[in-house]
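Below is a filled-in request sheet from our internal design queue. Each sheet records the structural input a requester submitted and the sequence that came back. We keep these sheets so that new team members can see what a complete request looks like end to end.

REQUESTER: design group, bay 2
PRIORITY: normal
MODE: inverse folding
CHAIN LENGTH: 419
BACKBONE (tokenized):
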């Protein structure tokens, strides 16, 4: 038996699914209460969702007064999301369930500076292997990249560490190969989203994620949504001006940017000519001819006399900038992530102490400062969550809900998302 459906109906249907999916209303009576819809209509729509495999009946929920009712469960295993994270020197790929649970992932070292085509081919090869291993195909694809992204078009804009990617549409490349809608965002925005949803402790407060790695960036999740600003450039704090020291020319061309002074590449530039002051770094340099940010982090963790103080100074300078951001945006949580996590406890402690010293009393009153908790997977988890968020948007879900799957409707979904 099928019921004729109108756009109004599918909108309502989508809303019911989202209420169950997000845990806001998980029984038929609660859905009636939440939506103001009649019992018959709710029962009908719920049955339809069960028939297409998106919901299922679970155990009995205790109720106040009336008869107990079945708890509904969103079947997060009904579909899969493919997610990728393209950093300057590495690529991560993952398959996730529809609630953001990561079920398989892989990781490869790769220089994104080699250009978009070969890089995306590597990521696609990783997706291919994961698809065969998990026997899945994507309902949607989320991609994070280490550079500024114009979120509406999915194109990179002038990324300093990914030359050759300027104006490139990662979305089009994947849309040509997959019948799935594709969303692209800056990697640090997605790390923030991943930690906000799946990190621990997790208390739903506004979260400011700080990436301290080769470069430096920030991502803010406010009210459960990534704050992207007008054009998608929000959070690009690596190029905040912090000094007039003539030695601090940045790779963006400006003088005195935060990451030129405190980012991993800035430390490499500063410490390489002084490597003779450090037994560890001079041995590294003699063996390989260059130093990396990881070398410096590892040396700092081992108590190196050159790298140790340099990493502490970096944490302090970043902490000073972050204190300004906290004073401005008043997040509940600041998360410290990236390769700097491997530089030892002292780096994190200096970061937290500097923020606490510099924030106003009200902004600091309930502020938590913690380390990233998803073992360097928060970015790829966030990329999956971005795709899920868009697939289940109130104006998207109606485009596929009647069929129980978005497969075959990618172009409508992508068009709706752009509008
Ligand atoms: Zn700069």
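RETURNED SEQUENCE:
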């Amino acid at each position: 038996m099928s019921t004729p459906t109108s756009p109004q109906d599918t909108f309502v249907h989508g809303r019911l699914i989202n209420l169950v999916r997000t845990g806001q209303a998980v029984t038929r009576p609660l859905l009636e209460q939440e939506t103001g819809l009649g019992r018959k209509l709710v029962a009908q729509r719920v049955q339809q969702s069960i028939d297409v495999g998106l919901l299922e009946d679970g155990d009995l929920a205790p109720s106040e007064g009336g008869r107990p009712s079945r708890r509904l469960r969103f079947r997060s295993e009904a579909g899969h999301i493919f997610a990728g994270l393209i950093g300057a020197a590495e690529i991560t790929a993952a398959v996730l369930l529809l609630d953001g649970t990561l079920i398989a992932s892989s990781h490869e070292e790769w220089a994104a500076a080699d250009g978009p085509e070969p890089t995306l081919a590597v990521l696609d090869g990783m997706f291919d292997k994961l698809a065969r291993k998990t026997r899945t195909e994507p309902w949607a694809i989320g991609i994070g990249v280490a550079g500024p992204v114009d979120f509406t078009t999915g194109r990179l804009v002038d990324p300093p560490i990914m030359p050759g990617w300027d104006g490139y549409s990662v979305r089009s490349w994947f849309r040509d190969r997959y019948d799935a809608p594709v969303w692209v965002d800056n990697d640090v925005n997605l790390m923030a989203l991943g930690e906000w949803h799946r990190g621990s402790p997790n208390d739903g407060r506004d979260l400011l994620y700080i990436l301290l790695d080769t470069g430096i960036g920030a991502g803010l999740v406010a009210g459960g949504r990534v704050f992207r600003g007008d054009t998608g450039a929000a959070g690009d704090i690596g190029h905040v001006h912090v000094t007039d020291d003539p030695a601090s020319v940045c790779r963006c061309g400006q003088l005195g940017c935060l990451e030129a002074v405190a980012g991993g590449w800035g430390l490499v530039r500063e410490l390489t000519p002084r490597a003779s002051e450090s037994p560890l770094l001079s041995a590294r340099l003699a063996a390989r001819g260059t130093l990396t940010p990881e070398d410096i982090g590892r040396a700092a963790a081992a108590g190196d006399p050159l790298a140790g103080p340099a990493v502490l100074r970096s944490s302090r300078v970043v902490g000073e900038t972050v204190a300004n951001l906290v004073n401005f945006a008043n997040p509940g949580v600041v998360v410290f992530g990236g390769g700097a996590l491997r530089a030892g406890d002292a780096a994190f402690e200096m970061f937290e102490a500097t923020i606490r010293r510099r924030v106003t009393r009200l902004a600091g009153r309930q502020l938590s400062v913690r380390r990233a908790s998803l073992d360097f997977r928060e970015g790829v988890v966030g990329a999956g969550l971005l795709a899920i968020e868009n697939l289940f948007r109130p104006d998207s879900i109606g485009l596929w809900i009647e069929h129980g799957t978005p497969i075959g409707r990618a172009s409508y979904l992508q068009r709706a998302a752009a509008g």
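SHEET NOTES:
- The mean pLDDT is 93.
- The longest strand covers residues 90-97.
FILED BY: M.R.
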